[in-house]
Amino acid sequence: MGLRFLSLGEYARNRKEAYPKRHPKVKELAEKTDESAQFFVAEHGKAVYRETGDNAVSTPNSKAGEGVPLYATAAEKAILSCYPKEKVERILDEISIVALTEHTITQKSALHDEIDAIQKRGYSVNREENGNGIHAVGVPVRRTNGWPIGALSISGPAYRLQGELLEETLPAMLLETANELELNIAYSD
């Protein structure tokens, strides 16, 4: 492979509406939390990893452009929560739902219940569903019509991300950042 693929990848990345605006926000989240901060976009039934902050802890499927199943992590579940039930059902019918860890939700009815809960509270939580010892929180980033652009998430070691930090502090920080990003995207030229 030559460097031409790098050029094509950069072109594809920059045509995504959130890319130029989300990078500073992801970096800011990583600096504030000293954890890994990510931005994901949904593409072809998977979420494609796009960026990580400077203080990242290695996590499963954390390479740029590597797709992860839409049911397996906090960011992906946040994206799914933006879709109508029928679209979620179609997505889940088109993919293989496999356990990535013993904590991965693999039953469709349980996934639907989880998505309903995310819609009510506004954020998703991943407790070792994608990787053992890793917890994460995710929130959708939406267009003005409610459709997802992508999702922000913060992940880190389960022993650090728990309790009030996992259930209140990080979700509030992510919801605030997502709202700022949504406004910046909606009102940019």
Number of strands: 6
Strand order of the largest sheet: 3-2-1-6-5-4
| Percent helix range | 40-55%
Total helices: the number is 6
Strand share of the residues?
15-25%
The first-to-last residue Cα distance is 36 Å
General description of the model:
The protein has a 6-stranded antiparallel β-sheet, with helices on both faces. It contains 6 helices and 6 strands. The protein starts with a helix and ends with a helix. It is of the alpha+beta class. The protein has helices spanning 4-14, 19-33, 74-80, 85-94, 108-121, 163-186; strands at 36-43, 46-52, 67-69, 124-127, 134-142, 148-157.
Structure keywords:
6 helices; globular; 189 residues; 6-stranded antiparallel beta sheet
Topology (elements, then pairings):
Layout: H1 4-14, H2 19-33, E1 36-43, E2 46-52, E3 67-69, H3 74-80, H4 85-94, H5 108-121, E4 124-127, E5 134-142, E6 148-157, H6 163-186
Antiparallel strand pairs: 1-2, 1-6, 2-3, 4-5, 5-6
Helix pairs in contact: 2-6
